[in-house]
Specification:
Elements (H helix, E strand, L loop, with lengths): L1 E3 L11 E3 L13 E2 L27 E2 L12 E7 L8 E6 L4 E5 L9 E2 L12 E3 L8 E3 L1 E2 L6 E3 L7 E6 L3 E5 L5 E5 L3 E4 L15 H6 L56 E3 L5
Antiparallel strand pairs: 1-2, 3-4, 5-6, 5-8, 6-7, 9-16, 10-13, 10-16, 11-12, 13-14, 14-15, 15-17
Length: about 280
């Protein structure tokens, strides 16, 4: 539920908070890992490969069950928790054999619900089944690309994909980006839509909250000097001074296709997400 607070400080003037009834600050210690080493957008050579990253609050990683490979073992959802490492909430599941695992919390999954994985599982929210056993048109998330590797697609808050068609080997899936892709029917997917659907409507309210997330400021190219950006320089507000906008490295910023002409995954993509 989105709440607009009374602005008693300037940073709360336009702030919209997503208030949820969650168990926070009480994760299972055995499922926590020390925070991964911060790279701040740098590669193994120390060069910046992703700009505007750095800082942010310390946080521990929750060990997620992406594979859902406890086939036929029923589990009970004990609580829905906040996870600082992702936009979706997570569900703590106690399995019948005594093991505890975290999974992505789908919409309408509540504490006390039963979940199970396997080809014979019911078609209810939170259960994981192979794509060959899921009806066409049903909302799914947490989708594998390679059977047994673990989910790679549709894991963000409020997202869902649908199966458009299926044959003996592949299912044709419409992804949230509107890309249509082939996925082997042996891959697992979870029934339902990812929860925390109001995440996209949150407003941070102040720049400091962006810094807590590890996002550094973005400076316009026209505000830089000519040595730092092709748009820089000039007296006053002189614009970019170019026929077409460019990246900081001088490449065309608009219109040029940057995807490889012969990429290995092209054969699995039926419709590109960029095609109108």
């Amino acid at each position: 539920m989105l709440i607009k607070r009374k602005p008693i400080t300037p940073g709360q003037r336009n702030r919209l908070d997503n208030v949820q009834d969650l168990v926070e600050n009480n994760p299972v210690k055995s499922l926590l890992a020390g925070g991964a080493r911060r790279r701040n957008g740098r590669n193994n050579q120390g060069k910046i490969t992703v700009r505007h990253r750095g800082g942010g609050v310390r946080r521990k990683y929750r060990m997620m069950d992406w594979k859902r490979n406890k086939i036929g073992v029923p589990g009970k959802v004990m609580q829905i928790e906040y996870d600082p490492n992702r936009t979706a909430n997570i569900a703590l599941v106690y399995y019948a054999d005594g093991e505890k695992r975290y999974m992505i919390a789908p919409r309408n999954l509540e504490a006390g619900a039963k979940v199970i994985s396997g080809p014979d599982a019911e078609l209810s929210v939170g259960n994981a089944l192979p794509l060959r056993n899921i009806p066409v048109g049903m909302a799914i998330h947490n989708i594998e690309l390679i059977a047994g590797k673990g989910a790679q697609l549709v894991r963000g808050a409020g997202t869902a994909a649908t199966i458009q068609s299926r044959d003996e080997k592949f299912a044709t899936i419409l992804l949230p980006s509107k890309e249509v892709r082939l996925v082997p029917v042996d891959c697992l997917a979870t029934i339902g839509e990812v929860g925390n659907q109001f995440h996209k409507n949150e407003k941070l309210g102040k720049a400091g909250r962006n810094r807590h997330l590890g996002i550094r400021p973005t400076v316009r190219g026209v505000a830089m000097h000519p040595a730092a950006h092709p748009h820089g320089g000039g007296e006053g507000k002189s614009g970019i001074g170019l026929k077409h906008p460019k990246t900081p490295w001088g490449k065309p910023a608009l219109g040029k296709k940057t995807r490889k002409q012969r990429k290995y995954s092209d054969k699995w993509i039926v419709k590109d997400r960029r095609v109108k």
